[in-house]
Design a protein that fits this description.
Strand order of the largest sheet: 1-2
Shape: elongated
Largest sheet: 2 strands, antiparallel
Structural class: alpha+beta
Radius of gyration: 32 Å
Helix content: 25-40%
Number of strands: 26
Strand content: 5-15%
Distance between the termini: 117 Å
Number of helices: 13
Length: 373
Amino acid sequence: MHRSEHRYSCEVCNKAFGHPSSLGKHQRLHTGERPYACEVCNKAFSRQLYLRRHQCMHTGERPYTCEVCTKAYSHQSSLITHQRMHNDEHQNKCKVCTKAFSHQSHLIRHQRVHTGERPYKCDVCSKAFVSQSHLKTHQRIHTGECPYTCEVCNKAFSDKSSLTRHQRTHSGERPYTCDVCTKAFSRQSCLLKHKRIHSRERPYKCELCNEEFSLQSDLLKHKRIHSGERLYKCELCNKEFIQQSELLIHQRIHTGERPYICEVCSKAFSRQNILVNHKRIHSGERPHKCELCNKEFSQKSNLIKHQRIHTGECPYTCEVCNKSFIDKYSLKTHQRVHNGERPYVCDVCNKAFSHRINLKKHKPIHTAEHPCV
């Protein structure tokens, strides 16, 4: 378009346009007018095009698909940016790890992973971040702002990714699939954790007893065994527990609740894992096999204990005499030698024993053939 064709000029910035509608759209930058409102969340826009792009967030529509990898996008601009990753001429590669990026700005931000640079600092708590967007999301912790709202349940979130993950609880979408067993997950982090079942990777190790875990959360819970920390307390009997789940299960002792019922024999259990193990009595299933001697077990915990016979590992040590044991139960039984505890009591003569087997041997004394003296 030639300059002579620019017949409509903005009175504020003197920018010229060839059509009055183009001038009208431009002037909204100065007036702040946003005549196009979203019917779902009431967010307003200066242009109808911007509204259509925004509505893709609610509908989930992704009309722009990459011909190379079939990845789909809601905006054409996002697709164009993505396609640069397939074009070697436009790749910006990191010299440290050779990872490639479609934008140089993304490469610069990535390089901070290697340099440790965190140029964006929170003025409230001084926490520093690699990118400005991460800082902006973090600051919502202090302001309490939650601009992303679920259309189904109205639950609000501080960042868009959290909303996207949450929406999968309503849609049932599970976009992350295991390439070994095809099990699907709603979060990539859950898929990564699941894959450790197949790889048997246990990257989290206890510094005190060398026990290894596939999840960091399991390691943190385990460490409370050594520290003695018990955060969860039963209000009825004051018994304390390391995990909240253990407290909830314990409380069923007081309520008598047994919500897990065997479909074969109708026996009820307070824990789901006990029901799963019980069902193997009927099926004869022994899914856990020792790689060294091929012995099979119905419970994974029994396999782990069995494997210590081969390794010689005794991770449970008595603090009094330093004697070590294969499993926690054996240590607990041994400790009664030192503390004098006798938890097994005869219901006839009240005689107490430190081991259940000793009580079992004692009981025949009270039969008619062996009257109590």
